[in-house]
Amino acid sequence: MNDNELHMWLEKAAIGDESAFQLVYQATHQDVYRTVAFLIYNKQDIEDIVNEVYMRMWRSFHTYDPNRPFRFWLHGITVRLVQDWKRKAWRRIRLFERNRQLTSEHCDWTDKAVLQSEMQHDLFGLVRQLSYKLRVVVILRYFHDYALEEIADILQIPVGTVKSRHHLALKELRKQFGMTGGDAYVN
Amino acid sequence: MSIDEELRYELRQAAESMHCPPHLDERVRQSYQHYLNEKRGKSPMKKRLIAGVIAVAILIPSAVFASSYLADDIFGSSEAIEQRGGSQEAYQEIEGMLQTAKAKLTEVEFKEFKESFKQLMQLKLKITDENGIKHEEKLTEEEQRQWRELGSKLAPYFEKIQGNEKQ
Asked: Domains (ranges, CATH) in chain A?
């Protein structure tokens, strides 16, 4: 499904076409889920945010500029919601609910690859240990292949800041990765 | 492999193993339904919310005025005493005394004080003509007894209010 088609389906979904909603969801949900899951680690939080992303999609459909890639708009919404989530107080409201679940579910992350990575301290495991500010740059740069200027646009911060975070993140990864026995990378 | 390529590869690998849980599909679909209902104005929640907001908007001003003048609780409004020779200043003075009482007495005490004071003031309004002259003979025997009772009931409170004021 290309951008034009997506735009058309999204428009239909926004005005109430349920089959259009299904199409948009099927075309985008794995990407949205994975983006959020790279940035937030609590399974319940991830699901809440993914749900919010779709709510925001219908509601702010009118802010989409068809001249830019659809996924750029989508990733902008996703990252902003993740950031809102980290900042906002409405998270606390759900603490009660979550505490109840935590008592019955100690490990909420079940994806095998993630567990393995963390145990093996491989490169992905190290990415997960980066601070959020560095990690979000790495994910947008290497998972979504955005240019640093585009990342600055999505995160609404200066390009210089993105450059320095990118640099710091790679420096950190090289240092850690070298120490845990990986190949020494010289750039 | 450079670290750039390594990162791309690792992240893609990791992403392959992450799957949006199927129950989330249903949740997002329900949210979408909710969005549609809201958009069509069918949501009872939204209507209730609007009604609530309007009710609060109406209640707030009246609540603010009601609480700003304790004396209004006693007399209704300053007009009640102005018709009987009282002045706006006298009304403000009573208001000031009530505010002091509220601050100095406990909540239970103040409630009782206000109730008795209100009864006393109603009797007082009854015997006072439009020139501010009192005619105690207008009271029935029952009312006169009530008058004395209220006076002795209120005396300790007045002492407390005024006594504390001097300190």
From this structure: 1-109 (1.10.1740.10), 111-187 (1.10.10.10)
